[in-house]
């Protein structure tokens, strides 16, 4: 029996990058923020604090970097876990990890142009984990609900992979 190896080009890397932006979360803000869902605090139950501003800034920076094809900035705002997933997915698409991600972002920037996150809302915040909802200016198919973020080394990082 012969096994056929198929090499997928940048389009698979593009799909990977778009999935990373869209996230693999269920999109349901009621999902767990951490291992103990009872420990999470929803927006309706708490007052916005300084962490909300830092988290909002990180969401906006990641979205801007993504749609401006600034791969170094976007990768810097990804959690370590997501950077590993992105590299792994790109390599399976026949690209070197970082080069594949850079190519995917370049394709997204060319296709959609520069975009910003708007209406950023911190849905839940529990310790170093949060869920955030936001809209992508002019691209409702990329709007997010309950997207996971994690604090690593005192900075909020995209963790929807």
Would you mind describing this structure in some detail?
The chain is α+β, with helices and mostly antiparallel strands and 161 residues long. The chain has one domain: Roll (Nuclear Transport Factor 2, Chain: A), CATH 3.10.450. 41% of the residues lie in helices and 20% in strands. It has 5 helices and 5 strands. It has helices spanning 10-22, 50-67, 71-76, 80-92, 97-112, and strands at 41-42, 117-126, 129-136, 144-152, 155-158. Strands 1-2-3-4-5 form a 5-stranded antiparallel beta sheet. Strand 2 (117-126) and strand 3 form a beta hairpin. The longest helix is centred in the middle third of the chain and has 18 residues, at 50-67. The radius of gyration is 16 Å and the shape is globular. Residues 27-42 have a biased composition (Polar residues). This is Lipoprotein. Residues 27-51 are annotated as: Disordered. Residues 1-22 form the signal peptide. Keywords: Signal.
Write the layout of secondary structure elements.
Elements: H1 10-22, E1 41-42, H2 50-67, H3 71-76, H4 80-92, H5 97-112, E2 117-126, E3 129-136, E4 144-152, E5 155-158
Antiparallel strand pairs: 1-2, 2-3, 3-4, 4-5
Helix pairs in contact: 1-4, 1-5, 4-5
Organism: Streptomyces chromofuscus
Region (Disordered): 27-51
Protein name: Lipoprotein
